[in-house]
Amino acid sequence: MKKAIISKIINSSVVDGPGNRMAIFFQGCNFNCMYCHNPETIVNASTNDTKMMSIEDILSEIKKYKSFIRGITVSGGECTLNADFITVLFKEVKKYNLSTMIDSNGSHDFSKDNELMKYTDSVMLDIKAYDREEHKKLTGKYNDMVLKNAEYLAKVGKLYEIRTVIVPEFLSNKETIKSIANLLIDYIKKNNIKYKLIKYRPIGVREEYKDFRVPNDEEMEELKMLALKNGFEEVIVI
Ligand code: SF4
Hints:
Layout: E1 3-13, E2 21-26, E3 51-54, H1 55-65, E4 71-75, H2 83-93, E5 99-104, H3 114-119, E6 122-126, H4 132-139, H5 144-155, E7 159-166, H6 173-191, E8 194-199, H7 217-229, E9 235-237
Helix pairs in contact: 1-2, 5-6
The structure holds iron/sulfur cluster (SF4).
């Protein structure tokens, strides 16, 4: 049976989707974000801190906690680099009546992966920047697929939350918020799409990128108000 490299499993998390959830973090990422606070998870290879796990291995962990959790969330790195693995995992997890969520950088074409979508309840999607060039500068990749996914997931009612890390001066945060609201305006209220604005923090960030400025509370509040004014109804600042 196929195995995947898992960087960690948190048995009980309240920050990876609704309710108490088991969060499973896959190793390896196809982006290279300057502010990545966990750059060791980017490399798609085993290290001393990772574990090769089969679907059965993960299911036996889930079985131990299934009475205490509402569902599972797969995250990363970028978990959809293991889309086939996740599809089988979700299919099995559904048998326990648990919900299934994906936390993703948006690089996988969800609209073309019917099998994965069949077993996925919802997705938390990073939109790191709306502007293509800005996204490329930050992550090393253009965001065409990310935006396509945002629209697709919103349309099919599987977009739980958008996430943006706020980096003052370096990113055009206001433009990103306004453009995302504009892109999703027809679905925000209908599907209760949330927006999480995440304060950039230098913890764990590579030495060469530590100089970004941390936004203050007033700036975060101003961005929250902007998201609310542009159509979001639930905006979380962390
Ligand atoms: S998508 Fe996430 S894990 Fe991947 S490089 Fe960016 S911040 Fe790091």
